[in-house]
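Re: that chain you flagged

S.,

Sorry for the slow reply, it's been a week of failed gels. I finally had a moment to sit down with the sequence you sent. For the record, here it is as I used it:
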Amino acid sequence: MIRYAQRFSNGWGLRWPRLKSRPWPFVQLLSLILVGVFLTWSRAAHPVSISSAIVELSEKRIRIEMQIMLEDLVLYHGLSADGSMNYSPQDLKMGAEKHRKFVTDYFSVLDVDGVRIPGKLESEVFDQIGDAAVPQADLMKRSVSYLLVYDLEKEKPLFLTFLQTFGGEKSALPAVMDLYITRNEVFEESAQIALNRPHTIKIDWSRNPEGKKQSLVELRKLRREQLKDRLGIGSFSGLYSFLYINRFEVRHEILIPVTTLDQFVPIKRANNEFLEIAEQEAVRPAVEEFFKTHGTVTIDGKAAAANVQRVSFFSLDIADFALNADPRRIGVYQGRVGVIISYPSKQVPKNVSVVWDTFSGYAPFIDMTLLIGNEAPNRAYFYPQSTKFDWSGDLIGPAVSPVNAVSKLSDEAARIDVTTKVLENIYRAFDFREDEDVYDSLASSVQGTLLRELYLRIKRSLVVAEQGGELSHMTALEVKESKPIAKQPNSFETSWVVTGTSEHWGHIHTRTTEYRAELKLVETDGLWKLDRFQLLDEKRIRFETKIRGNDSNK
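Prediction finished late last night. Pasting the structure tokens below so you have them in one place:
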């Protein structure tokens, strides 16, 4: 552990880790800013409880040095000053001794399952109290320190969550903690955590094992890799909002921490720290009703009906919401809820308005990612003073064009050309959302007797099981070959490859599948239509997930 006296340098109770290399410029700048803030606060009553914690990670142990200002001892333990506004060193030391239990009870380190890791107080330093009375004006300039140690049952944890509830959940005194995380005496990241507002980190134990300082280029590359690995989710405790505007619907997707959702929809649970599967199911109707009635969408001047497609409860694992994981017990301080609200449109939207006017202390504003058509991501922000977003534009509608029977199917090039157009029409029909619209579109390329069978077959082929039955949409189709079948006019053994995508939470699932089937085309009213479909083989070639607009995908 880096020694107390060596680690911290300024005279205002702020203490920074002594790094192996020179501190980064932004850390130095932040230090100056915080000194200014403390100078301001020292002239008045302390408005909040402010503490700091230096977290030093190793493979088998976590060591945390927590610094508490003397004013917290006065506030939390009811210490009194004399007539000259001085505090006796005996009272302050008594408060510091009481505070041992305070920091161990109200500060938690949680594992990946939300279970509290046992910690113990290893040492403490009270020397800044001194032997003389401490004036009121000095309470924020002096501090006491506690060294907490957490032995890890499982080495090299992938996730750790830090939580402080200083004073208890009903404390009238707001509390914030500045958290600084180091590994091998090298600064990793920092965060400010408020009362009951957890901060989760993901640890890459393979990175920078010798504790060498990384260049800016290396750090940028690492950040891109982290975003790709996390599917664009940069914080485990943030609220994420995604608005999709495409040719058949407007869709709002929200990924919200359980603790934030609890401010909007109270979640009943037997254990305050965990949410069981039955409790998740019990609160689901209330969550659906909340999101149906909070936030409105207007498409082309008409109010759109909200259809809550999904309410899912996720753990810390990013793959959970990428693959729509099975229900499981989750930790309240680490869990997130994914809500998908669809606003279908029969016509391709040209004008869209979105209003969001629900905020809380946990969600004082909404940072919305805009995903419009196939464009690169953009952003919109909602505040109590600015609750509306408007969009106008032109999107390409479902391109379904009947195939005129102007050419014969005597050579393979002609067969591939016609078959490609017919199959593209069939897949594009499923870009419509209503069954009747899908049927009408299919009818332009499929004979009536085959219509229902092909509707069910193609729909099954487009289902993405990893996304809980979500339909994908064709983005590419290539007919590889088309061989005539003997003694069967206009019948061909055809193989083709189709690529379909579905998109949620800002990341795109792409699935490529190869098919081989016997197809028969007939000429009806001057159009080529599919009259027979006999599947011979089907195999998945590829399934991948990437983030829209992420540089590392290029």
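What I noticed first: Confidence is low (pLDDT under 50) at residues 1-47, 230-234, 550-554.

Talk soon,
D.
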